Amino acid sequence: MSAKSKAARARRRLRAAARLSQQPPLPAKPLPKHKPAWLKVPRWLWASASALLAVVVGLHALYPSLSINDDYSFDQMFPYNTSFSISNEGIWPITDVSATCGADFTMLPWTTDPNDKSKMDLHTEDDNHANFAHELNYRERVTLPCNHNVVANGHRIAPGARLTITVSYRLKGTGFRHSQTFKFQTVAGWNGQQFWQYGDYS
Question: pLDDT tens string for the chain (202 positions)?
Fold first, then answer.
């Protein structure tokens, strides 16, 4: 091979290398995006879950729930005679409202003689209040028939007396009955007078 041919071949190689060096680099392939797991859930499943949640929330709002409050007292000097009232906090009306009232208390002697130990621990229960309210609609209130008929009226009662009220009712238009239990215990106020306090004293 002549020197001219070798020189020509070398020039061609140099021009080819120069062209390659001037070409823009190939773009890098983007990495596949990672989809969160919740985006992989089918839409129909999301729709079904949303509908079920709406039904649960709606039923919770409709379902009856009773609240209880002090109503009034027959004798301000004897707080055990305090009367209570209940209110239907659910939109669904309730019917055939019944109540059972029970109390546990210690009746003290009338005398102030410290040697007189003739106290009595008593339990009373009054369940003669079937269907005392025929129907109770949303936010309607009715007085419970539980007061002095379960705690010895007018007697000296030791602190710590307990009162249990169970209210049962039927959801209107159904045969389903439900009940709620409310528990109270007497505590001393700032002036030493006893009064009922709501809470779980089981």
Answer: 566 566 666 666 666 655 655 556 666 666 666 667 666 667 776 677 777 776 666 565 667 789 988 776 655 556 667 788 999 998 889 999 999 988 888 877 777 777 777 778 888 887 778 889 999 999 999 988 876 555 555 667 778 888 899 999 999 988 889 999 999 888 777 666 777 788 776 6
Q: Hey, what amino acid is at 89? A: E
Answer yes or no: are the C-beta atoms of 135 and 94 closer than 8 Å. Answer: yes
Residues facing 186 on adjacent strands: 196
Q: Are 56 and 131 in contact (CB under 8 A)?
A: no
Q: CA–CA separation, 80 vs 82, rounded Å?
A: 5
Q: Provide the H-helix boundaries in 43-187.
A: 43-62
Asked if 101 and 126 count as a contact pair (C-beta separation under 8 A), the reply is yes
d(CA 181, CA 86): 12
The conformation of residue 99, written as its DSSP 8-state character, comes to E
- State how far the Cα of 105 lies from the Cα of 118, in Å rounded to an integer: 14
